[in-house]
Amino acid sequence: MNRTHFEKELEDLHYDILKMGALVEEAIGNSILSLINHDVELARKVIEQDDRIDEKEVEIDDRCSRIILTQQPLAKDLRIVLTGLKINTDLERMADHAVDIAKTTIRIADQTYIKPLIDIPRMSDIVREMVKLSLDSYVNQDTEMARTINQKDDIVDGLYKQIFRELLTYMIEDHKNIDQAAQFLFVARYLERIADHATNICEWVIYLESGQHIDLNE
Description:
Blueprint: H1 3-37, H2 40-71, H3 75-108, H4 119-139, H5 143-147, H6 149-173, H7 178-210
Helix pairs in contact: 1-2, 1-3, 1-4, 2-3, 3-7, 4-6, 4-7, 6-7
Organism: Thermoanaerobacterium thermosaccharolyticum (strain ATCC 7956 / DSM 571 / NCIMB 9385 / NCA 3814 / NCTC 13789 / WDCM 00135 / 2032) (Clostridium thermosaccharolyticum)
Keywords: Cytoplasm, Phosphate transport, Transport
Family: Belongs to the PhoU family.
């Protein structure tokens, strides 16, 4: 194996994953912003730009496959590439959930919201912090940083339960609230799933360094 060439390939892989991560963070932020502001145009932009993220996912998959085929890495070198593949998949799924949120915006944009959006934006801010933390831990191969993500995930889970209880109350008080409250519940659920994917990335970072799979949600 040409070590210099292999290391250059890994640098390019890291750069591609960071670039995709930035696109995903932007998509999450814009999807929530569109929901807060009833901004259909911004929601449509999130949906349209998902094609760019999908293209980047394919590029990264192709890069990883090419590295494996041409460089035939072993041991930790192979784990680096496999981790890149797994993180790529998690990022693409996060982007899909951002699209789901944007579609929710479009569905209810012409409605007066049954309540001010407070906890959902708070939840989104923490989720975006988790995405950044997971990517930073990957690039720096920092397992200690990766292990801290469960603290933020616990906060996200707590907010989800709080949002669920509050929206359930709105549904019970007036059946006319049921449809919109359900839409907001879906949004909270999408954010929770994004947080789970960020946690997955941190688990892959730990696998990269140790060769062992652990569950950070235990």
